[in-house]
């Protein structure tokens, strides 16, 4: 009996039997999924497992390289069967699990959120065998996602893909896997579940030091913010159809960013650099906990909320205790006809609130500075409030100590006109006629004394030129 068992064991491992098994596997798989199958050879075989090398799947049975859709260096199949009965095709193959060694494939999600995996392998018709699970070791995956804001889809290439897919409860598929992004070796973890034949899913993402410029198309509207560079960590859950509404996607979790540079076409090419901080995602709302960044040469902090349930809405608060007035000049030159050598220096406290609906926004703020210099003239205790929207820029409660006296004013620039119009009104009191500001103007008329009065300025700003009118009321 021992001799017979031993002889039978070696017999089933013979090349003849291996080739017969390989041919049977190819035939049964091709008939089951209507795809072309190639197997290099059967490396190992026993009553409980089989190892296939150089395994490939093609769109059809012509086995042309251009039609290849999947390959793996090896596939190890563990099963529970009566070998002789299975060989005679009297019972189906009952597979415990399959291990894919160094597989390579492309996975696509269309604009409706449907993955092409089932269609690619024609798995909706498969009845060859049941599989409890699939292990993946050292895989490579090219993932193309058309459900992002990137035109023509977003390609993410992964390497060192390791994971497990639990298939015993189909159509539900549970999985857990890890990988590294091909371009920068940033690690990621992905786990959750999805259903075959529909777009319902729950995915948990964990990223570490990932390049945000690549993944930004999942988070932001392209016309609102664009990222040039920077890294992010995340712990996010992405769920689709949790509320029974097909196509509704919810985000839950936290994202932290570091050394991010970004800009906005919507906000007149505004550039923000060295962004550090975190944001909380809750359904279709984003809460910015605390972010620090630099605008030109000025550091600031930012907090606020973004919502995108129906339309994109935002409420952002910006604060800086050391905002350079020279940086404000560069921004003001976009709207005012200021000379290239216009001079404004000093450090200020700045508070801004930005409220908006998609591309319709309003900015409210206030500014204060203990001291500074404008156009070569010193000032003290400057304060002002301002508003900005698509209609114009408006200044209110302007106040400063200049030339030994006090100046107060209001005004603004109307941007709704074809040519921007500006209107300013200033009241000044007790200006010293011997100050650096007034002496060059009145030295031929006034040798000493204090000057009070009012100045009204109106004009039109045209590119390359400016027309204006002024009125003065003086009190000596």
From TrEMBL:
PANTHER family: DUF748 DOMAIN-CONTAINING PROTEIN (PTHR30441), PROTEIN ASMA (PTHR30441:SF4)
Name of the protein this chain belongs to: AsmA domain-containing protein
Biological-process GO terms, alphabetical: regulation of protein targeting to membrane
One GO location term (cellular component): plasma membrane
């Amino acid at each position: 009996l021992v001799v017979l068992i031993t002889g039978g064991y070696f017999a089933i491992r013979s090349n003849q039997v291996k080739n017969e098994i390989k041919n049977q596997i190819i035939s049964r798989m091709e008939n089951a999924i209507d795809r072309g199958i190639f197997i290099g050879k059967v490396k190992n075989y026993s009553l409980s497992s089989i190892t296939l090398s150089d395994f490939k799947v093609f769109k059809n049975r012509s086995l042309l390289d251009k039609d290849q859709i999947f390959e793996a260096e090896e596939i190890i199949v563990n099963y529970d069967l009566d070998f002789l009965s299975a060989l005679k095709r009297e019972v189906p193959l009952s597979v415990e699990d399959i291990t894919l060694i160094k597989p390579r494939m492309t996975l696509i999600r269309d604009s409706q959120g449907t993955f092409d995996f089932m269609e690619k392998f024609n798995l909706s018709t498969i009845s060859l065998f049941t599989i409890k699970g699939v292990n993946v070791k050292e895989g490579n995956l090219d993932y193309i996602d058309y459900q992002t804001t990137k035109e023509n889809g977003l390609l993410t290439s992964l390497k060192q893909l390791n994971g497990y897919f639990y298939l015993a409860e189909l159509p539900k598929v549970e999985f857990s896997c890890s990988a590294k992004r091909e371009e920068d070796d940033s690690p990621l973890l992905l786990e959750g579940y999805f259903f075959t034949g529909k777009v319902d899913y729950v995915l948990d993402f964990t990223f570490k030091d990932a390049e945000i410029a690549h993944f930004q198309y999942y988070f932001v509207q392209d016309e609102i913010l664009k990222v040039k560079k920077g890294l992010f960590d995340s712990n996010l859950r992405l769920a689709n159809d949790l509320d029974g509404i097909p196509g509704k996607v919810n985000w839950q979790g936290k994202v932290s960013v570091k050394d991010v540079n970004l800009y906005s076409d919507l906000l007149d090419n505004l550039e923000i650099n060295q962004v550090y901080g975190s944001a909380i995602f809750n359904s279709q709302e984003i809460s910015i906990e605390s972010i620090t960044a630099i605008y030109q040469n000025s550091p600031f902090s930012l907090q606020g909320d973004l919502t995108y349930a129906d339309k994109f809405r935002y409420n952002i608060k910006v604060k800086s205790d050391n905002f350079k007035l020279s940086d404000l000049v560069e921004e003001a030159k976009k709207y005012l006809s200021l000379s290239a050598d216009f001079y404004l220096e000093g450090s200020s406290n700045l508070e801004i609130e930005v409220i908006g609906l998609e591309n319709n926004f309003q900015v409210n703020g206030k500014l204060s500075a203990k001291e500074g210099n404008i156009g070569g003239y010193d000032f003290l205790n400057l304060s002002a409030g301002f508003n900005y929207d698509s209609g114009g820029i408006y200044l209110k409660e302007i106040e400063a100590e200049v030339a030994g006296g006090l100046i107060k004013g209001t005004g603004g620039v109307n941007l709704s006109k074809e040519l921007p119009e500006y209107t300013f009104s200033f009241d000044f009191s007790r200006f010293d006629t011997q100050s650096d500001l007034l002496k060059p103007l009145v030295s031929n008329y006034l040798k000493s004394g204090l000057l009070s009065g009012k100045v009204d300025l109106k004009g039109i700003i045209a590119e390359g030129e400016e027309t204006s009118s002024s009125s003065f009321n003086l009190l000596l």
